[in-house]
């Protein structure tokens, strides 16, 4: 695995999940694999889980870790080519990313979409510019359209908690006060569509994901119907893809409640976090045995550690092909 920016970089998904579960049982079994290798974790946006779990994962593999909040700690970066840089951006990505590539063996990057221009966001400009100019393997820490480390975590968590071979997994849209990216639902759908699950996406009309992400999932427009017989309820808000970046609905009927959880097959409740209590999901659900959100977040370490191990092995193969 050279880069990890989407499911398409993972050639054997069940093997990745198994490897992560083994890693969880023996966290330090590869503690020398990253010795003398440096990862730079670059954040254009806020993060709690991704930042800490990826740092911990890299340290468990013996890596050196540098973390930077881009723009806040460093200069504001210009991403577009051929611009007359007489505005507020002091440095171009072509120099900044190339310099970061001098210091780091792997570069992790978090950069949310603007939610203003769909074409720009879905072209993954920031991710692609870093890929082009660092000359290093890139680890996505959530880009404009995807959050693959989150989705791998989600699959690991479903594998751990499932009680049937082919569980019913429901991704349900939920209300929110802010317009949020489609990254988490896009990625979750993409990974579920490649997994042994019966997958449904429930959302109000107008919240359809891009067809390349929703794929063949069952689509349900009723806030209750999808819950019937579900083994996993995965809640997430996202803004509209069609009416790009807009909030079209804030109907509290879409909030996850204990009443709706009663329709399920004693489903586990999942959310990537951060979650707004009593907007997305009511207290009673988060505070009940249904909720596995904290265990889910704990699994972020094993997802990151498994992916980083694969990336380090791929680097080592390039550097010393005679050893393999
Ligand atoms: C972000 C999102 O929805 O993409 C990050 C989630 C991991 N959430 C918020 O900004 C609240
Ligand atoms: N789930 C997730 O990526 O959380 P953070 O935004 O806190 O990293």
TrEMBL record:
Pathway: Amino-acid biosynthesis; L-arginine biosynthesis. The keyword Nucleotide-binding does not apply. Keywords: Amino-acid biosynthesis, Arginine biosynthesis, Transferase. Its EC number is 2.1.3.11. Residues 184-309 form the Aspartate/ornithine carbamoyltransferase Asp/Orn-binding domain. N(2)-succinyl-L-ornithine binds at residues 142, 176, 236, 276. Carbamoyl phosphate binds at residues 47-50, 75, 110, 147-150, 272-273, 300. It catalyses: N(2)-succinyl-L-ornithine + carbamoyl phosphate = N(2)-succinyl-L-citrulline + phosphate + H(+). InterPro entries: ArgF'-like, Asp/Orn_carbamoyltranf_P-bd, Asp/Orn_carbamoylTrfase, Asp/Orn_carbamoylTrfase_sf, Asp_carbamoyltransf_Asp/Orn-bd. Gene3D superfamilies: Aspartate/ornithine carbamoyltransferase (3.40.50.1370). Residues 3-160 form the Aspartate/ornithine carbamoyltransferase carbamoyl-P binding domain. Homotrimer. Catalyzes the transfer of the carbamoyl group from carbamoyl phosphate to the delta-amino group of N(2)-succinyl-L-ornithine to produce N(2)-succinyl-L-citrulline. Is essential for arginine biosynthesis. PANTHER family: ORNITHINE CARBAMOYLTRANSFERASE, MITOCHONDRIAL, ORNITHINE TRANSCARBAMYLASE, MITOCHONDRIAL. HAMAP family: SOTCase. Belongs to the aspartate/ornithine carbamoyltransferase superfamily. SOTCase family. This is N-succinylornithine carbamoyltransferase. The gene is argF'.
